[in-house]
Amino acid sequence: MAKHKRTMGKEKKQRRIPVDSCIRCGTCCMKGGPILHEEDKEILLARHIGYEYLVTIRKGELALNPVNDRLEPVQQELIKIAGKEDGWSCFFYDEKEASCGIYENRPLECRLLKCWAPSELIAVIGKNTIVRADIINKSDPIISIIETHEQECPCGEVENLILNLSQGRNKSKSLARLSELVSKDIAVRSYAISELELKKEFEPFIFGRPLHRILSDRGLSVRTANDPIGKTS
Fold first, then answer.
1. Which of 3, 114, 204, 213 has the least C-beta neighbours within 10 A?
2. Does residue 125 sit in the same domain as residue 140?
3. DSSP bridge partners of 100
4. How many domains would you assign to the chain?
């Protein structure tokens, strides 16, 4: 037992040693992909990162604030590298190799990220970030569909309705409105795929996460005409 205690003490002492370089632990990459900035347009235009690997965080959507490490509604539209499957671990991070698949062409936030000295990264958070319209051809008809989607299915309203439910206010009306918003969200996405031939893999970038997924993450589901087997919570 005494030997075990001495070993534990040694481990604690080792953990207190200051870190002044990346030890490739992967913690930063597994917390989520970077938000993209104006400086990253060249990487996108050169196709080092395809749009199928991007996801839009819409204005009003709940997301992690890296400064205070809290979930908060974002104040502006953001584009970031998507996560793997249903998680947020950066798509390009290889956990087995502890390596980045696009290291030579990694975005600005990745280049500035130093977990032992975060001041450079903190200085650019929320500044000169790009939106979908910055990297989609202005003549592309999907632009008007995006605008319609934002008007018909605003994330800010969804968050307010979720708040009403959490506080026990107007439950039936809130659920009915959420159901309506989810139906509209599905309808717009379906139209873009069937009529504009939008590829399914581009949907998270074009429209952000589906509203039913956002609700599911919050422990909610609603019955809609598009989803007759849905359950009302």
1. 3
2. no
3. 93
4. 2
Q: Taking 80 as the threshold, does the pLDDT of residue 13 lie above it?
A: no
Whether residue 129 is found in the same domain as residue 169: no
What was the pLDDT predicted at 88? 80
Structural domain harbouring 180? 136-217
pLDDT band at 201 (very low <50, low <70, confident <90, very high): very high
Residues 98 and 41 both lie in one domain:
yes
Q: Can you count the helices (H) and strands (E) in the chain?
A: 11, 6
Handedness of CA 77, 79, 85, 90 (dihedral sign): negative
Query: Which residues fall within 8 angstroms of residue 44, CB to CB, at 6 or more apart?
Result: 36, 51, 135
pLDDT in tens, 114-150: 889 889 999 999 999 999 999 999 999 999 999 999 9
Task: Classify each residue of 62-85 as buried b or exposed e, where b means 16 or more C-beta atoms within 10 Å of its C-beta.
Answer: bbeebeeeeeebbeebbbbbbbee
Residue 11 belongs to some domain of the structure:
no
Please tell me the distance from the alpha carbon of residue 173 to that of residue 184, in angstroms, as a whole number: 17
| Mean pLDDT along residues 53-60 | 96
In terms of Cβ atoms closer than 10 Å to its own Cβ (0-12, 13-18, 19+), residue 50 is: exposed
